[in-house]
């Protein structure tokens, strides 16, 4: 059984096919220069304020149940740190807004410029979400600055982006 491709790999512009092959087959990782620390810092969990601790989810619900619950209502459900595993891809979505007529998939970005690899990455989540759940709602991809939570990019998911993501996956 083939391992899933992490969506993080789609962000790499200058990739080495041999490095990806070695990582998949031998669990080998040839690192690349990354100037910023990882997003999930375990030390940050200890520094939560009382307000952040109170913001825990009020209900735990599956994506399928959330799609059914919001159908035909004005209710908006927001999911955080949603892990998805598709046929070829696997990854973690930072935030999903599920509404009656649309779904907004949000990915936090470390910089304030929506570079093309970042856009490909967030649209890859849209591809995976569409294949897995077939929501019959309009999907939007949104990039948000991780430092100040300002929206730096939002666009409707379309066939053009689906093809771009498929081409990127095929090159890997």
- Rough shape? globular
CATH class: Alpha Beta
Whole-number mean pLDDT: 78
Count of helical regions: 5
Percentage of residues in DSSP E strands: 25-35%
CATH topology: Trna Endonuclease, Chain: A, domain 1
Number of strands: 6
Helical content stands at: 25-40%
Order of helices and strands: EHHHEEEHEEH
CATH architecture: 3-Layer(aba) Sandwich
Termini gap? 17 Å
Q: Tell me the Rg in angstroms.
A: 17 Å
Q: Which spans of ≥5 residues are poorly predicted at pLDDT below 50?
A: 28-46
Domains, number? 1
- Going by helix content, strand content and strand pairing, the class is alpha/beta
Main sheet makeup: 6 strands, mixed
Region (Disordered): 35-58
Biased composition (Low complexity): 35-47
Protein name: CRISPR-associated protein Cas4, RecB family nuclease
Structure, explained:
Residues 35-58 are annotated as: Disordered. This is CRISPR-associated protein Cas4, RecB family nuclease. InterPro entries: PDDEXK-like_dom_sf. The chain has a single domain (5-29, 75-171), classed as Trna Endonuclease, Chain: A, domain 1. Helix content is 31%, strand content 25%. The protein has helices at 17-26, 50-54, 63-70, 116-133, 159-171, and strands spanning 5-6, 77-85, 89-98, 102-109, 138-145, 151-156. Strands 1, 2, 3, 4, 5 and 6 form a 6-stranded mixed beta sheet that branches. α4 (116-133) packs across α5 (159-171). The longest helix is centred in the C-terminal third of the chain and has 18 residues, at 116-133.
């Amino acid at each position: 059984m083939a391992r899933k491709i992490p969506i993080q790999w789609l962000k790499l512009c200058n990739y080495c096919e041999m490095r990806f092959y070695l990582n998949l087959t031998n669990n080998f990782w040839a690192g690349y220069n990354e100037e910023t620390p990882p997003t999930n810092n375990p030390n940050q969990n200890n520094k939560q304020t009382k307000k952040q601790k109170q913001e825990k989810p009020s209900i735990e619900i599956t994506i399928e149940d959330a799609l059914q619950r919001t159908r035909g209502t004005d209710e908006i459900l927001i999911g955080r740190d949603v892990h998805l595993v598709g046929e070829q891809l696997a990854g973690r979505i930072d935030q999903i807004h599920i509404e009656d007529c649309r779904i907004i998939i949000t990915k936090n970005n470390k910089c304030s410029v929506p570079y093309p690899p970042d856009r490909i990455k967030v649209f890859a989540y849209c591809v995976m979400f569409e294949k897995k759940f077939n929501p019959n709602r309009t999907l939007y991809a949104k990039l948000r600055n991780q430092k100040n939570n300002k929206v730096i990019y939002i666009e409707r998911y379309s066939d053009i982006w689906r093809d771009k993501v498929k081409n990127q996956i095929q090159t890997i």
